[in-house]
C-alpha cells in the first residue's frame, strides 16, 4: 500500500493528465429507486434482481439483491478498449459466506467476448470467467476458494494487452487478490453489448446470491509512455523525500 500511495502523490505533484479521455458509462448506487419496479425500469424487468435495504447487512442505502437465474442488464453500445482508453468495471458486493453459489456481474456480447466476476461452483469460490477475448479464453479462473461473509470490492480493467482484476476481500485493503490475463493486443472484433447481474449464463444458484452496490462502468485514458516515465520519477522523488 505504501508504494501505491507514494506513486499517486508523485503523479499529483507532477500534474500528469490521466483522465482526458475518461467517461462514465454506468454509475449506480441504487439509492435513487423507490422500489424494485423502478430499478428494473433501468436494469430490465426480465431479471430476478430485487431492490433491498443494504443497511441490514452493514451497507448503506439501497442495493440490488440477486439470487441467481435470469439476469438484469443494461444495454451497451459496443463498448471496448482502444489504444488510448481502457474499460474499467468496479463496485462492491455482499456475500453471506454460504457456499454453492452461481452468481456474477458480467460484461458480454453474447459469448464473444464474455466476462463474468463473482462466485461459481466449478471451480468453487470467488472466480472470474474469460471467454473469446483476443488471444485468451481460459474460461473460469479461481481467485480464492474460501468464501468470507461481508462486503467485498472489485476493480476490473480491460485493455488491449490484458485484463486485470483486483479483488479486495472485506474491502479493507489487506486481503487483495490480483489476477492478470494477457491478451494479444489486437483490436477487439466486437465490444461489450450489455452489463449484467445474475446467474452466469442465467444459471440458478442453490446457495443463494449476492447483494451488489456502487456499480461503476467507465473508460479511462491509457497513460502515454512519457507520462508513465514521469509517474515513476515522481514516485522516486517521493520515496527520497520520505527517507
Automatic annotation (TrEMBL):
UniProt-listed InterPro entries: Ice-binding_C (IPR013424)
Pfam families per the UniProt record, alphabetical: PEP-CTERM
Entry keywords, A to Z: Signal
Signal peptide, first to last residue: 1-22
Highest rank taxon of the organism: Bacteria
Membrane spanning stretches: none
Domain Ice-binding protein C-terminal: 221-242
Protein name: Ice-binding protein C-terminal domain-containing protein
Organism of this sequence: Poriferisphaera corsica
Amino acid at each position: 500500500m505504501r508504494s501505491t500511495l507514494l506513486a499517486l502523490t508523485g503523479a499529483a505533484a507532477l500534474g500528469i493528465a490521466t483522465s482526458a479521455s475518461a467517461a462514465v458509462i454506468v454509475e449506480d448506487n441504487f439509492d435513487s429507486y423507490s422500489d424494485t419496479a423502478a430499478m428494473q425500469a433501468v436494469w430490465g424487468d426480465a431479471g430476478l434482481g430485487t431492490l433491498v435495504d443494504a443497511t441490514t447487512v452493514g451497507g448503506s442505502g439501497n442495493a440490488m439483491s440477486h439470487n441467481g437465474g435470469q439476469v438484469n442488464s443494461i444495454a451497451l453500445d459496443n463498448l471496448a478498449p482502444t489504444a488510448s482508453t481502457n474499460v474499467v468495471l468496479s463496485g462492491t458486493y455482499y456475500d453471506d459466506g454460504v457456499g454453492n453459489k452461481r452468481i456474477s456481474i458480467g460484461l458480454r456480447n453474447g459469448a464473444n467476448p464474455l466476462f463474468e466476476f463473482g462466485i461459481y461452483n466449478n471451480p468453487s469460490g470467488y472466480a472470474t470467467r474469460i471467454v473469446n477475448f483476443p488471444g485468451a479464453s481460459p474460461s473460469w479462473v479461481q481467485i480464492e476458494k474460501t468464501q468470507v461473509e461481508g462486503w467485498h470490492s472489485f476493480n476490473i480493467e480491460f485493455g488491449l494487452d490484458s485484463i486485470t482484476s483486483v479483488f479486495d476481500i472485506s474491502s479493507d485493503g489487506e486481503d487483495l487478490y490480483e489476477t492478470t490475463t494477457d491478451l494479444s493486443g489486437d483490436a477487439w472484433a466486437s465490444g461489450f453489448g450489455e452489463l449484467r447481474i445474475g446467474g452466469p449464463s442465467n444459471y440458478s444458484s442453490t446457495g443463494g446470491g449476492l447483494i451488489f452496490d456502487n456499480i461503476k462502468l467507465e473508460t479511462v485514458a491509457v497513460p502515454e509512455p512519457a507520462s508513465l516515465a514521469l509517474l515513476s520519477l515522481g514516485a522516486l522523488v517521493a520515496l527520497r523525500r520520505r527517507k
